[in-house]
Amino acid sequence: MTFGATATTPVVVQPGDYVVVDTGDPLPEGCDAVVMIEDVVYPEGLDASSLGTCPVTLFAAIAPWGNVRQIGEDICAGEMLLTSNVRVAPAAMGAMLAAGVQEVEVIARPRVGIIPTGDEVVAPSANPQPGDVMEFNSTIFSGMVRQWGAEPVVYPIVKDKPDLVRSAVQRAADECDIVLLNAGSSAGRDDYSSRAVAEVGELLYHGIAIKPGKPAILGCAGEGAGASAIVGVPGYPVSGIIVVEQLVKPLVEHLLGCSADHAETVEATLARPCMSSLKYEEFVRVRLGVVGGKTVATPLSRGAGVVTSFVKADGIMSIPQNSEGLEAGQTAKVSLLRPFEDIANSLVVIGSHDPLIDEVAQLMHARWPKLSVASTHVGSMGAIVAAKRGENHCGGIHLLDEATGEYNEAYLEKHFPKGGVRQVECVYRQQGLMVAPGNPLGIGSLADLAQDGRSYVNRQKGSGTRILADYTCKQAGIDPATIYGYDHEEFTHTAVATLVAAGSADAGMGIYSAAKMYGLGFVPVCEEQYDLLIPDYAWDTPMVQALLEVLRSDAFRTRMEQLGGYRVDQPGRIRRHYK
Amino acid sequence: MTFGATATTPVVVQPGDYVVVDTGDPLPEGCDAVVMIEDVVYPEGLDASSLGTCPVTLFAAIAPWGNVRQIGEDICAGEMLLTSNVRVAPAAMGAMLAAGVQEVEVIARPRVGIIPTGDEVVAPSANPQPGDVMEFNSTIFSGMVRQWGAEPVVYPIVKDKPDLVRSAVQRAADECDIVLLNAGSSAGRDDYSSRAVAEVGELLYHGIAIKPGKPAILGCAGEGAGASAIVGVPGYPVSGIIVVEQLVKPLVEHLLGCSADHAETVEATLARPCMSSLKYEEFVRVRLGVVGGKTVATPLSRGAGVVTSFVKADGIMSIPQNSEGLEAGQTAKVSLLRPFEDIANSLVVIGSHDPLIDEVAQLMHARWPKLSVASTHVGSMGAIVAAKRGENHCGGIHLLDEATGEYNEAYLEKHFPKGGVRQVECVYRQQGLMVAPGNPLGIGSLADLAQDGRSYVNRQKGSGTRILADYTCKQAGIDPATIYGYDHEEFTHTAVATLVAAGSADAGMGIYSAAKMYGLGFVPVCEEQYDLLIPDYAWDTPMVQALLEVLRSDAFRTRMEQLGGYRVDQPGRIRRHYK
């Protein structure tokens, strides 16, 4: 029909010899090619509204099947759309519908029964009684198995009675595909777990070569379709989570017949050495930060508590059995606990602790949801060390030079002889002695603590507050050894405040805002200058630029006034650029 | 109490002077340290059951606060647990409960209204009528926005009437935070979308510089808390998905205040050049494979249909505006559509098509759920090219050497003079002419097709079947130019079968199993040898080893018998290792 049409020898096609179609329409009977609307020329004075009733002119030939999608171009009957045992993604649903597939057989979500046990364990409450251990493991484990595609079933808390534990396990094994028996699996006086497993089914292993998680139990009950796996999960949540991740996830994957989740991993450079035992495969929680294009992993203290570990951990690094550990600078594979994108968008704060860091995090994240703050409290000297190693984007410093009474400059000159950092104004803050509410002991100075029966709680060496305490002792001619508890070190102002509030210590040095948070008495010692150290390599990152904007905002000023004990002058101003 | 205890000067502690505690118990009144049970020595003849009532001996002193976790070691009151606008992970739930937080304010899931439009569009059905276009976009888009944390609301299909479209948009804008108006946004006769958006609210953009997805529309309606974003989404699903990903996801993220999902990306090496227009940012769907440690991206044909694109695509590569495209060997960032772990565990099959590849995929995945198969049909020569470039793990080959009548050896010797590949036996299969059921035209050979009014459909150059067709013509002294449709090339046996079944061609060469699948007549031409080419670099991968196990299994043999047209001798046997 269009054969031979060219720019000089156009072909005119009469109405009736062509049919108007839309993209996606089936090819009408008797047609074998489609001409694009852009290539159609209408008779003088007419337009697209006359299409179908007017002749049209074509200046180029169209080959048979031109602009026609062939039947079967996409997928043909008999070709396999998806293999079995795959997760059906949204696009695959569309593909199935396009191929006329209206129904698919699916695998039922595996049921995971979770049995909390323990005489001392109670349901979570806002006001626990002394001695109560709140049962939140079942909440964590439920969330984990739900993420993997299983259905959690949480059973009531079971007391430490062998027959109660056994019948709870029996019931859960009857009702579920996998049973998690939580706590009671370490070798203490409450160890009924392995007995219960052995009585209900078969005890396969008690104790596995991983750390944390050593005392885990593995067993099974029932047969065929009614078979259940039983996992004894240690009660300490940090261990429990590792065991659930290592033992329960593969079970869920086996039942689902496919991978349970992404399990994104990255190669990270270790910021500190991390020793390990030859006896176990060890799982170390790490914080991650992307600084200067390098992903840096900082192992969290292995004794770290529940909250810290799992709110602060960005990933889990595995150190193989038979390895003595890793050196600083070595790289290791880290399995991520949050998306890498979030980690790459985190402002890595390593330095002196101040509650204002949390406030900055909040203000920054609220304004730029993709940005977040990952802060580690290692004191002012820690900020300097981290910046030298290229591991932080910024860090708080308040280092008093005893010779001049000035803050920070002497330290930065000494540690960065070649420059490469900026000293940025943040706030001035009240340091003093936090004491019991109303100061019942009438403590007026550190000298009052060098008395029998009075106790002190200190900050760690290298922190600006410790330097201040040491300096104050020296000025007053006090021998620190005469102060009971001077060697007891804590890492944050709030940790010190907590111990004073709990009556474990009579006083501790710290900032006013921490004392206020805990309703403590406060004996002012001095006002100090709290600056931020920002290495040049971090200056142009969106995170640091966002930080500076937050510092300069009215919202920050208002928040500091609410916290109390701060004087805000020109936060965000560069005091000095060390070149 | 334990002061001075050593191996030579043990200390005996009387009952009443100690209290038995479990891990996790609070420190009892009057105590300041915990001794581990392993360090306690009982009096002669007694054991742990007497603890609490017997004296115990300690051979080492324990420091005050030894084995005691301090209050506040984990987290202190006043410290920030989580900033606002974060997704609460399971461990964070535990952390909140541990910290006594029972309730949190959450952000409501954004409601995303989806309006399918079009006169020709019908709800999906297993038996569509000719001309029906099945509406499955709303299923795909629902799944996508649900994955991001939004709640989809699918409205009934709206006919192409301006007032119907307008009132549907108005209703959805009243009820939802985001409105997707699907189809009708390309400049065809059905373009009511932009008008409807302009009438209900404000039309911001019509047409954006991305491809596919150019005709997208962006608008808004309402104000304040009642404001809605309106997105006109192209009807062609491949374009629609890109537009939803590029425009709707950021809107959902904005409403949620946090990142919507992982969006894992990888650096991949391009297997083929990929040209692009300077005018648009172009999104190219790619298949990915990890071969020899390198992640290789193969762009999918841009004309690829819905099903193929979104079942086969592993990721989306973006080529920036102002770039003319990428060369083979260049690396590019690819945003993943499935977890990288799955991609790394895929057997990359590039070579000749046979439905048995699908069967192998099914058998392999069923047995090893972590393994999968990614196959691309590019013909036998394509298998050789891919192996030379290091891009596949295996590929089907059935290359007839006209001189000897042998299969594959001559080709492998020629193309791998230095060796590096294995030729592995797979199956023998019937090749022949697929014809209409019952062979009404009485076609007996290719010669019968060289007649006026008869048509043929061919396979692409480089495929073993094409070589066989060319060889058969030569043997019979037929000039291929005399066969109508000899130049019409399809890429798979099933695509050829589909066209014969649809009556678009009277015959096409292909394998028996494809003819059987479509209930076609079949005129045998010869039995050919279908081998697998496996490069040495891929041999030791778990995927190739699993493939070999599948080939050697009874299940494979049984399945081949069911498909029909195959002779199975010793599949998995190495015919020859080219060194």
Written overview of the protein:
2 copies of one chain form a homodimer. Chain A has 3 domains: 111-256, MoaB/Mog-like domain (Molybdenum Cofactor Biosythetic Enzyme, Chain A), CATH 3.40.980; 266-339, Beta-clip; 349-578, D-Maltodextrin-Binding Protein, domain 2 (3-Layer(aba) Sandwich). Chain A is built from 16 helices and 29 strands. In chain A, strands 22, 23, 24, 25, 26, 27, 28 and 29 form an 8-stranded mixed sheet that branches. A 6-stranded mixed sheet of chain A has the order 7-4-8-12-11-9, with helices on both faces. The first copy, chain A, has a 5-stranded mixed barrel with strand order 13-16-15-17-19. In chain A, a hairpin with a 6-residue loop joins strand 11 and strand 12. At the A-B interface, helix 1, strand 6, helix 2, helix 5 and helix 6 of A face helix 1, strand 6, helix 2, helix 5 and helix 6 of B.
Write the layout of secondary structure elements.
2 copies of one chain form a homodimer.
Chain A: E1 11-13, E2 40-41, E3 56-58, H1 90-98, E4 111-116, E5 121-122, E6 133-134, H2 137-147, E7 151-154, H3 162-175, E8 178-182, H4 193-200, E9 202-206, E10 210-211, E11 217-221, E12 228-233, H5 237-256, E13 265-270, E14 274-275, E15 281-291, E16 294-299, H6 306-312, E17 315-319, E18 325-326, E19 331-336, H7 340-344, E20 346-351, H8 356-367, E21 372-377, H9 379-389, E22 395-397, H10 409-415, E23 421-435, E24 456-459, H11 464-476, E25 489-490, H12 493-501, E26 507-511, H13 512-517, E27 521-535, H14 536-539, H15 542-551, H16 554-563, E28 566-567, E29 574-578
Parallel strand pairs in A: 4-7, 4-8, 5-6, 8-12, 10-15, 13-16, 20-21, 24-25, 24-26
Antiparallel strand pairs in A: 1-3, 2-3, 9-11, 11-12, 13-19, 14-18, 15-16, 15-17, 17-19, 22-27, 23-26, 23-27, 23-28, 23-29
Helix pairs in contact in A: 2-5, 3-4, 8-16
